[in-house]
Specification:
binds NADP nicotinamide-adenine-dinucleotide phosphate; two-stranded parallel ribbon; seven-stranded parallel β-sheet; Rossmann fold; 282 residues
Length: 282
């Protein structure tokens, strides 16, 4: 039995669909079954990384676990610790943790630091493990979509990284491969898309799919901060995101061939992702 945590989220939902399509026994974990819908044939379980008492039932009979811990607080990688303890009790045989490429590049922002500590918990678990370290997801463009739809304009921040952004289905494809084939124990894989794209490139691709040009406007860092605050971001969560953005200019452009090497398929492109999500830009 495979357990997919984060099963209602961007990567987990893609992974669930891939595993369900392969007719392997798979269980989806969510904190709230009432809000979730899953593909036919998928078992469901409630579970919350922050409430360890909920995890034994979710892990009962599970062999391999996709570990997607969404958050880090002042107490460190509590979610990984709780998951590892329950996985050990359940006798699981493989943990595959979603991390971030910031760890590969020794980034010191709070998000990368949290994942680095979380990776260590998984590595020290005594169970076979694999780490997946993706760079920026293409879903990052969701934030630009309202202004693109309303004003045909993409507002970015001065100095925003050139990014080899990755389609979440490619992360899921690698996860499915790692979960279902041997030879990945003790490996940390850095995952990117196939091409580094500047903000101008990204706007051009959206424009090509929409069929009209997209203007690019650069905001100052303080204008960007104000915009994030307007969207409800604040406190340590906002600072962590801005620091990651700042640091990632140094590495986010690097392209890794891992997706094709492992899955045998070239990475999906930003054209693919925009075509699939065209409704958000109209
Ligand atoms: N976005 C990027 O560019 C990027 C790049 C590299 C790495 N990452 C990493 O990717 C991860 C996010 O992945 P994603 O975008 O696929 O997730 P997402 O779409 O943000 O969804 C979060 C998932 O986590 C689950 N969740 C939230 N709190 C939970 C808890 N306390 N216990 C159990 N499950 C919980 C949610 O499930 P329910 O609400 O159903 O319980 C949901 O399925 C983060 O660790 C992030 O650092 C992101």
């Amino acid at each position: 039995m495979f357990l997919v945590t984060g099963a209602t989220g961007t990567v987990g939902s893609e992974l669930l669909a891939l595993l369900a399509g392969r007719n392997v026994p798979v269980r989806a974990m969510t904190r709230d079954l009432a809000k979730a819908t899953f593909p036919a044939g998928v078992e469901v379980a409630t579970g919350d990384f922050d409430r360890p008492g909920t995890l034994d039932a979710a892990l009962d009979g599970v062999d391999k676990v996709f570990v997607l811990p969404p958050g880090y607080g002042p107490d460190g990688p509590v979610q990984e610790r709780n998951l590892v303890a329950a996985a050990a009790r359940a006798g699981a045989s493989h943990l595959v943790k979603l991390s971030t490429s910031g760890v590969t590049f020794d980034a010191t922002d709070p998000i990368s630091t949290g994942h680095r500590l979380g990776e260590q918990v998984i590595m020290d678990s005594g169970l076979p493990w694999t780490i997946l370290r993706p760079g920026t997801f293409m879903v990052y463009l969701y934030g630009y979509a309202p202004a693109i739809a309303a004003e045909h304009t993409m507002y970015v921040t001065q100095g925003d990284p050139v990014s080899a952004m990755i389609h979440p289905r490619d992360i899921a494809a690698v996860a499915a491969h790692v979960l279902t084939t041997p030879g990945h124990d003790g490996q940390a894989y850095t995952l990117t898309g196939g091409r580094a794209l500047s903000p101008r490139d990204q706007a051009d691709i959206v424009g090509q799919v929409l069929g009209h040009p997209i203007k690019l406007v650069e905001r100052t860092p303080s204008e960007t901060r104000a915009e994030f605050e307007r969207l409800g971001w604040s406190g340590p969560r906002l600072e962590a995101l801005l620091e990651l953005k700042r640091q990632s200019t140094a590495w986010d452009r690097q392209v890794f061939d891992t997706v094709e090497r492992l899955t045998g398929q070239p990475p999906l492109t930003l054209h693919d992702w925009v075509r699939e999500n065209i409704h958000i830009f109209r």
